[in-house]
Amino acid sequence: MAKRAHNIKRANKHLNRLQKQGKLKKKKKLPTKQEKFVKTKKNEKDVKHEARHEEEEMDDCDPTDMLEAGDLQELVKTHHKSNVRTNQIKRKNQSSDDETDYESAPRKWFGIDDTKRTVKAVLPIKGIKGIVPQFIEVKDKIEEINVSNGGVAAQEQIAEVTNQSNISKTVSTVELYATRNKKLSARKLKIASLGTKIIENPEENVKHLKELRLMMDEKDRDIFVTVRKLVSVSLLEVFKDILPDYRIRIKSDKETKVRLKKETKLLQEYEDAVLRNYKGYLQRLEKMLEGLRNRKKKKRVWISDLICSTFHRVFKEDKVGAISLECVKAIHKLLKEKTFNVQNKVLDTLLSLRVRDIIKADVDGKRFLTKKEKVAKMSKKERKRSKQMDQLEKELRETKAEESKEIKSKFQTEVLSQVFLIYFKILKRDTKSQVLASVLEGLAKFAHLINVEFFDDLISILHKLIESGNLTYRENLHCVQTVFTILSGQGSALNVDPQRFYTHLYRHLFHFHTGTSNSDMPTLLECLDLMFIKRRKQVTFYRILAFIKRLCIVSTQVGHDGSIALLMCIRSLMQSHKPADILLDTDNSQGNGVYLPNLDEPEHCHANASSLWELHLLRKHYHPLVSKISNHLLHGSPITGEGQLPMEFCNKSPVELWNVFDTSLMEFKPEMVPPKVAQRSRKRKIAEMGSSYMNEKISKVQKMFNLSENSKIYMLTNKQGFITDGPGNYSFDIQCTWLIETNEPNSTLWLRLEHFATECSWDHLYIFDGDSMFSPLLAAYSGLILQAPHPGEDIPEVVASSGSAFLHFFSDVAYNMTGFNISYSVNSCSQDCLGQGVCLEDGKCTCNAWRTGDGCDIPICPGDCGKGVCIKEQDICQCPPGYKGLDCSQVEAEGYWMPAVARHRHLGRASHQALNYNGWMWVFGGESFQDDTFDIFKYKFSTSVWELVKTEGVQTPGPRYGHSVAEYNGKAYVFGGILSNGNITDELWVFDFKGNTWTFGENQKGVYKFDPTPPLEVVGHTATVVNDRMIIIFGHSPVYGYMNTVQEYVLSTQDWLLVNASGAIIKGGYGHTSIYDPITKMIFVHGGYHSVSLSSQTLSSVLYTYDPLKKIWQESVNAQQNTSVFA
């Protein structure tokens, strides 16, 4: 190093000396970057060559000539020691020289024609072979024009270039629309792809959630509105699917430093990612909603309604109370910002809060001790055990995923404090506020939870509000309800006289009439219950009489729903205050003075001097229940006997009855039966004969039985006799009842129909096993029963095992027939044992050796077993090989019938449907005359056992019959049928065999250019599954009658189609059968009930074939037609 430095110093001295002598050449000036770029390669090499030549000249001047011999040797030694360092410096200088060469070299456009393309140099890349320059092409770049030098000409040149550029980019509207659709399709595909990936595996594809969320910031002016909408809706569905049911939050800084298991860490990272994206999604939605704030109020009504309905739903579904607390705080904040100038619906949302009685600290009867109390009262061992039990209870709650009652109580308490803070602020701020009605309604609902300290002040404020006269009668009701809710709960110990509030309610009772809305009736009924039933010992006698009288007056001027509720309320008041019965006495002389109905003071209106004459008017009310209750009250509200009220009404409160008969539902209960219209000429002829003919017939019957005009029930006590409607045809519009009671213990009553002929479907006879119509129904007859209609059949018999029978017959006003003749006997034998046995005194038959049954009507071995042998001990026939059946008369090779012995039999039914699935026979619905549900039974072929299927689901189908059932992919599809109300339906229900669950199939109306549009309401049809289609054939429609159409339901797409079939001319019908043959790929339809004309029908034996693929009908001509069939 020292030698090198010395050499440099000597060289510099030599250069200075040459410069003074004028012998040193001038150093050339280095070119600038622009000059380097302009020069060619040749010039660059020359410059480098000259620079090297100058260095060689400087090296020719040897500085060692000026050194002494000793100094030269010392420099050589130093050179050997610093060899390594010298090499490093050389390498460094060499790399520096390379960089210098690159900087001095001009930029070269590799393979680019500058005249045709415009390029831009970017940062180079250093590789193995050296430094490689990089360039990018700049498209559609307009050359810069020097405006400052050109002036106006330059500006014109710019305008010309710009116009030419615009003309070249002009496209048509169709092209713009096509381009937009192409962009939109690409965005939709991307949205669908990202959403599908996230839902399929959220943990692994959570990274795509951010990508999908960022698409809400779409910038393309052509499609940004549509894309943002699609992304917003798609993200909503994604979040609904992936957000967990439990509560999650973003980890704190301290929690992020905790070491966790790999699985736990991955789960937390996934939850953090979901939360961050969900937060960003909500913030973006808020930003999107900012544009709606400047719109007119009329256009924002639907937004406020949507928000309020959302709050209602949140309050109802929140079980813990944490979310409700945040929502209530948000409402409170909004009220402050608006200075409580909001609409009533904002405060009405608070009525949906799930706030029950506050759970006190003493939960489940346990008192929680503090730490000091535990130390003082418990030993160390007890404290340790208590701590373990608390930990165990905590773990059990975590296992059940339940919040502790203490946490629920805490949230509910905070929610209530916020709610009451809102209410009290409004009451204190302005008593004329527009939200006062909602405040009073809320106070009435939550009054039992108000702190006792506020009772006196609150009652005083409510009284001043009522006295001000600025409240509506609805708001007055809420004030009264609030006061008595307080006094009936914790405020019962207060020394408060609520007489003034009784007066307020008494004054406003006349506001209830048919000219106003009846929506406030439940509030009135609740007030009456709080004021008189729960405080019955604190109400004066005259006050009770005044309210009963005024309520009776009000019941005459409201609808039937209000009348029913008020009359039941009067019934409760009179039962709880027995002296009030004096109002039922029309000759009441106990009262003093004259009743003053317009006086608003209940204590001084002299109600004891009046009577409830309004009940006599209500006995003739158009509604049957109002008439019954009025008659019940006039008889003194008896429990049994004349004037008693059915128990189904006695057990319900007035509010419940009002809800049942609410007229706002636009439904009259019970349903009104329309008057019958004469359909036949004979009916019209009899109706024209007038009342004289009817009176003559009725008088004949009365004279024969020596009955008065009002007699309706006939008592029969003989052990045997006859029941008849009288000679000739029975009378018009009559109701007759017979009660057979022989007072014989353990007896059996037999009734035999010797003759029966009534107007079918209009005149009926009912037979009950007991002494009233509430006894079990044995039979119901209407129509014609012939004597021995078919060989082997006989007239039906009815057996009353209770020993008594109640028979009721009624006829209409138009058409009559010969009536009936019924014989009865007690402890007699059925059909006199048919001559096959001996009748004993207890009414039982002792049959011959080859007969059995109650009337010896069942042969032990039918037909003497034919080709078999009778085994009497086992009551069966032993058939020879090749023969089967009960009497061994059926050839086994040709198929045979055998009764299936089943255990656990279920109720009988008709017009049901069954199918075979997984070794069971599933029976769906049907008419059983007793069930009010759509039952499903299944029969196990291998064990011969019936089972009732317990179904699950929010919705289940109602009872029906005449429907169809078809199985596809483990599900049963139930379509059509007649409901319990007699209406034919087009409902489609789907039953899942795996989970025993019902789902309602939303019928998608088919697209069809002509009426009718499927699905059509049908009954008596059939359903056959072919491939993925359920084919509905024929049926009866309430609109189109007997149908010959074919409907198809595509199971894969849930679409309905109405088939336009061709081929043979077919007749519409119902009650047929259909089956699919996979070999011929045809559906065979046989039998049924077909229409011949508009007024006549017939049973059919025609066999049709239907090709479901070609939609072609054919009639099987070669099929043997022997017997008409009705399935």
From TrEMBL:
Keyword hit for Metal-binding: no
Residue intervals of the EGF-like domain: 825-857
Listed CDD domains: CUB (cd00041), EGF_Lam (cd00055)
Pfam families: Beta-prop_ATRN-LZTR1 (PF24981), CBF (PF03914), CUB (PF00431), NOC3p (PF07540)
Protein name: NOC3-like protein
Membrane disposition: Single-pass membrane protein
Biased composition (Basic and acidic residues): 32-55
Organism (species): Strigamia maritima
Chief subcellular location: membrane
SS bond partners: C829-C839, C847-C856
Basic residues bias (residue ranges): 1-31, 78-93
Source species, domain of life: Eukaryota
